[in-house]
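User: For my dataset I need records formatted as: sequence, then structure tokens, nothing else. Please produce one.
Assistant:
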Amino acid sequence: MSKRNAYNDRPVYVIDGARTPFLKARGKPGLFSASELAVNAGRTLLARQPFSPEDLDEVVIGCAMPSPDEPNIGRLIALRLGCGDETPGYTVMRNCASAMQAVDNAAKDIALGRADLMLAGGTEAMSRAPVLFNDDMVNFLGDLARARKPMDKLKVFSKFRPGHLKPVIGIMKGLTDPLVDLNMGQTCEVIAHKFDITRREMDEYSVRSHLRLANAVDEGYMDEIVPLFHKGKVLGEDDGMRRDSNADKLGTIKPFFDRKVGKVTAANSSQITDGSALLLLASEDAVKKYNLKPLGRLVDTEWAGLNAAEMGLGPVYATTPLLQRNNLSLADIDYWELNEAFAGQVLACQAAWEDDEFCQKELGLDKALGSIDPEKINIDGGAVSLGHPVGATGARLSLHALNVLKRKDQKLAIATLCIGGGLGGAMLLERV
């Protein structure tokens, strides 16, 4: 049964958006919590609107790993933004696509007539991912808590071993699929070998990402960023950018996920990052009521499932039916934001669309879907150079895609990404 487009019931417009700079994790907790990042972006975004924060119908936030003191971070952010006690807020989690899922949820409520004005997006402080006790230590602490007499406590202490202190790194657990027992980098190795993507091609793509971001910064194309402030210091740019990046230098870095025959390195992977990105969505009624100037329209969204071991091909599985449902070809899309989870993963997606056998067997097509002009993909860099705070990236992709359409006076864009667990998401956007 073919899927219908939920947004057709009532148009959904993107009015405005903002994000923080994406700050690279550097081995210890970052300067800002996930909620602080979102509140920083949200305050500036809402301050330039002709309506009050209390006029929002709801706040929907994607976040994969909020801190223990940030329960239901969507509601927390809504309150801290001054939306008032009566404005609901909630949190969604779809791994790397949490923010895109939040935007889709908010858009569907508008399309169904349940809301007119929504704040949606995502936030993540990956540097603050938890470091946990292992099971042996948890059991030890439990036994110790139950011991009442001094001798009982001594007996428990006698069973303590140094191995009890071996930590469980939360971010590594979170980025590993429990069913196929592969972390995200290893899934990239799988598809890179499948489509014969070379190490050199990955490194060259990574260099291009850094240089494109540097050019975008120099040309003033990253004005979607709201600066952060800390102890008199202004943090106004994505700080993972390397202007001196070159393929020969990257070629000396050892593989990280497969030490023997691997191609994926820390340098041709997305960066572990803190950041937030938010969008304001509105119905046509709200546009008229507040005299808003939409940046674009959400046309359609698609979610897809696939083999978790080939997670990186998610954009192919999600985008293809999205195009078919809207009677579009790859060439009809003016601009693409295809998340750079890994350089090899972006290249593998492009190779999959160009492969007759893959498209016939996996997508049910008669032949290869076609090619995408490299000058239409991630022209201002991507997650390899600016980072991938997993809860926020989906909103960043959509926001920047609309900004590029405006800059280039173009019409259609797709924001798409792979998602841990064997999923893909894609959003079709139109400039209005």
